[in-house]
Amino acid sequence: MMNYVVTTSNRPKYEQIVAAKKIAEEYKVKFIKRKSIGSYVAENDIDFYYILDKNNQLKIYDGKEMFFFHPSMSKVRQKNLKDGQRDHLIESINPAGDEKILDLTFGLGSEALLMAKFLTTGTVTGIEASIHIYRIVSYGLKNYPYQYEWLKEAASKIEIINMNMKQYLKEEADDSFDIVYCDPMFDIPILKSNSLNPIRKFASYDTVEDEDFENMRRISRDKIIIKSRVTDRLFKKINEYGFENINGSKRSGIMYGVMSVK
Ligand SMILES: C[S@@+](CC[C@H](N)C(=O)[O-])C[C@H]1O[C@@H](n2cnc3c(N)ncnc32)[C@H](O)[C@@H]1O
What we know:
The chain has helices at 14-27, 37-43, 72-82, 88-93, 110-117, 131-143, 149-156, 165-171, 210-219, 233-241, and strands at 4-8, 48-52, 58-61, 66-68, 100-103, 123-128, 158-162, 177-182, 220-229, 245-249, 254-260. It has 262 residues and is of the alpha/beta class. The longest helix has 14 residues, at 14-27. It is globular, with a radius of gyration of 19 Å. Bound molecules: S-adenosylmethionine. S-adenosylmethionine binds next to helix 5, strand 6 and helix 8.
């Protein structure tokens, strides 16, 4: 169990305090005035605290690192696509626009935003096991001051559920989604300037077991896509399961295994 409280950024506005108190109430933890947070942390066994800032952005600070929602990786990948570079996930999906996509490992939602960019009537349902990642990212998706219309529109096509994918996969009906996508944490992380670094402390490190894989197949109407690093145990499984296509760059060693279930 992690201990945490909720506060605001420095010199908060009245509305900010009211909103942060409401968040603390919802999370069933204490609200601590910003002025007192230093002494509160020093005197209590606290792992981190939530901060509601003056731009209505929710963050987590653990004394070292700030974790907050930002769509920067989706922006970079969209720009690369625009500049004519390949994106192996988008190529693997080959979206028509009306797909119902299930993203079983939502994380920061960077890939969900990118996938949603290519949808017209389609939707993305995201599953995230970690309550803290879920809170920060779902609050961010809703309240981020998007500078680009495409990001705002993409975010409106996404719904996130705080649940373990294993449970979700068991309960979901056959053929519920067109695409089922899964990107668990790598066994051997790539730490250097990685956008996922702030979530490592909160993330779930579950992997895909045979039962999960069978359920993915059962609930998908079209394709299953699993991302893995070539050095991971999961990559061996992708080969064992007989995924037909493995797309990715040899240089990065990050691969998308694609299996058609039609
Ligand atoms: C590598 S990150 C996904 C990154 C994501 N594709 C993105 O673009 O931001 C993996 C995420 O899946 C979550 N996760 C791992 N196992 C899970 C499980 N069994 N159920 C739901 N979420 C899980 C982790 O907590 C983490 O947030």
